[in-house]
């Protein structure tokens, strides 16, 4: 029930006054606005932005219903603001009002079909959509473009991220000292590339995020870097000895196509090493509240066999910290097996260099 006290005016409250209530909120608002410009966190309407800013304050104060009401009033002034609709959905979700949350996420998706905020994933988690191929390319690209500047420090320094070292140990247990060509799928800023560089003569990296690729290029690890979407990529390079995907498949639901992509990149008997978050249930894969996918061991083994791989090693490991919990993953190395897949290996071709 709403309070009968005189209504407050939120339109004229500056950020400085909000900060007197909670200095961390000011930091949150400023860093969010700076980081999220591609997502248009500003509605373009000053009055709407003021209301939205105070709605964020109410949300941070756990006044979820009031936050949703105030955000709705902001959207009345800026009805085409997709990020505002997404946040409105999150406010309703926190208040336990899932029907209006779903409506808000549907509106966000309608206004931004590229889905840079990940509204489709929210709809999947709400049971309104069937689990799909994976996160939209727009969401993944935007997420990592924003995250690039702090990625290494946050992942390694704060979350105890171990996938690159675990994969390197698994690879070295199966391979010789050096390879002619290694491919780093979803290379990001080059955390995996740092481990691979001493053991390969040529190293190529592919990623969807321009900003992550800039960070990787600055490290001078790769002989070739290319911006691409792994969900639609067609490989046209030389056959590789090794293909690695470190913490990449957590953003993909269905993995069959990317398994075949990896197989098309490899020479006969080449190695494919990758990680997934581990799902211990009966489903092939699930979308978690983190908006990342987890896959079952049985499903991954089936996909590898279908794509022309034989599993050499598969271990369950602690791969990182997540929300103060240790997250388990599968560290897998598989070998390309002889067969019809070799007949479909592409001819060498040129790529886009950064």
What does this molecule look like?
It is a single chain. By secondary structure, the protein is of the alpha/beta class. It has two domains: 15-130, Serine Threonine Protein Phosphatase 5, Tetratricopeptide repeat (Alpha Horseshoe); 147-344, Rossmann fold (3-Layer(aba) Sandwich), CATH 3.40.50. Helices cover 42% and strands 20% of the residues. It has helices spanning 15-21, 23-35, 46-60, 64-77, 82-94, 98-111, 119-125, 137-147, 151-158, 163-172, 191-196, 210-218, 256-265, 297-307; strands spanning 179-185, 200-207, 224-227, 240-245, 266-278, 285-287, 293-295, 309-322, 325-336. Strands 1, 2, 3, 4, 5, 6, 7, 8 and 9 form a nine-stranded mixed β-sheet that branches. Strand 1, helix 11 and strand 2 (200-207) form a beta-alpha-beta unit. Mean pLDDT is 82; it is low at 1-38 and 340-354.
């Amino acid at each position: 029930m709403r309070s009968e006290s005189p209504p407050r005016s939120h339109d004229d409250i500056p950020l400085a006054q909000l900060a007197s209530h909670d200095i961390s909120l000011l930091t949150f608002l400023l860093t969010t606005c700076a980081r999220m410009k591609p997502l248009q966190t500003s509605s373009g309407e000053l009055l709407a932005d003021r209301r939205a800013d105070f709605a964020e304050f109410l949300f941070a104060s756990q006044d979820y219903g009031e936050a949703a009401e105030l955000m709705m009033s902001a959207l009345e002034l800026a009805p085409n603001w997709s990020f505002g609709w997404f946040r409105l959905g999150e406010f309703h979700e926190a208040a336990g009002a899932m029907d209006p949350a779903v409506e808000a996420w549907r509106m966000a998706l309608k206004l931004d079909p590229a889905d840079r905020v990940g509204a489709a994933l929210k709809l999947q988690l709400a049971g309104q959509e069937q689990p799909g191929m994976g996160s939209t390319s727009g969401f993944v690209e935007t997420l990592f473009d924003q995250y690039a500047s702090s990625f290494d420090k946050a992942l390694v320094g704060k979350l105890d991220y171990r996938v690159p070292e675990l994969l390197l140990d698994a690879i070295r247990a199966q391979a010789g000292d050096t390879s002619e060509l290694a491919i780093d799928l979803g290379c990001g800023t080059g955390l995996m590339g740092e481990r691979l560089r001493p053991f390969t003569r040529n190293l190529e990296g592919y990623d969807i995020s321009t900003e992550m690729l800039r960070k990787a290029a600055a490290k001078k690890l790769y002989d070739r870097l290319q911006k691409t979407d792994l969900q639609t990529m067609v490989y046209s390079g030389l056959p590789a000895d090794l293909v690695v995907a470190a913490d990449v498949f957590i953003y993909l639901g269905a993995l069959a196509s990317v398994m075949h992509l990896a197989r098309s990149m490899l020479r006969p008997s080449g190695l494919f090493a990758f990680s997934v978050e581990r799902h211990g249930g009966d489903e092939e894969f699930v979308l978690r509240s983190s908006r990342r996918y987890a896959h079952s061991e049985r499903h991954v083994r089936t996909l590898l066999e279908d794509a022309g791989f034989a599993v050499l090693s598969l271990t369950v490991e602690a791969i990182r910290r997540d929300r103060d919990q240790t997250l388990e993953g599968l560290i897998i190395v598989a070998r390309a097996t002889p067969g019809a897949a070799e007949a479909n290996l592409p001819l060498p071709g040129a790529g886009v260099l950064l």
